[in-house]
Write a structure and sequence with these properties.
By secondary structure, the chain is mainly beta. 11% of the residues lie in helices and 32% in strands. The protein contains 3 helices and 12 strands. A hairpin with a 4-residue loop joins strand 10 and strand 11. It is globular and about 45 Å long. The protein starts with 7 loop residues before the first strand and ends in a 13-residue tail after the last strand. Keywords: Signal.
Length: 160
């Protein structure tokens, strides 16, 4: 399967971007301190201003740092779909940030379930369905590896 992930920013209102369409609902500050902004919701990839650091918001609303391009390209095909937000929003929405180091997508041989290695949880976490995989997180099907075993499967909630 091949999917081209698209997120469309459709309106600029009161200094905040309102993200609608295929991605999760969120708003990000455009730098106007008078405008309240909501924290981006699970599924969004974000970065602050001119910073090279890229993060993904996990299913629990936690911010996971993607430590390098190798890890990033274990999950996605391109840099497209990253929302640039004000750096103050990074700290106000997520005072603690975790790492998603060494992450990869995998499925067991003969099984359709897809898992992500989540370094912050210390194990594989199940991605509940293709819609979440494609539309919410924008992962790439070409990045899924077929393996004999998926262990450990973390008891933390699945990626939804």
């Amino acid at each position: 399967m091949k999917f081209v992930f698209r997120k469309t920013i459709v309106a600029l209102v009161a200094g905040s971007f309102l993200a609608l369409a295929a991605g999760p609902s969120s708003a990000a500050s455009s730098g106007n301190s008078g405008a309240a902004a909501a924290c981006p919701s699970p599924g969004w990839r974000v970065k602050a201003g001119n910073s090279a650091k890229v993060y993904v918001v996990d299913p629990n609303g936690e911010l996971l740092h993607i430590p390098d391009p190798t890890v990033y390209f274990n999950l996605w095909d391109s840099w497209d779909g990253i929302l640039t937000i004000d750096s103050s929003l990074l700290d106000s929405c997520w005072p603690k940030k975790w790492s998603i180091g060494n992450s990869r997508l995998a499925r067991r041989s003969g099984d359709d379930q897809i898992f992500i290695w989540d370094g912050s949880a210390g194990g594989y976490r199940w991605i509940i369905d293709a819609w979440v995989f494609e539309h919410k997180y924008g992962f790439s099907w070409s990045k899924v590896r077929t393996v004999e075993a998926i262990t450990p499967v973390e008891s933390a909630p699945e990626w939804f």
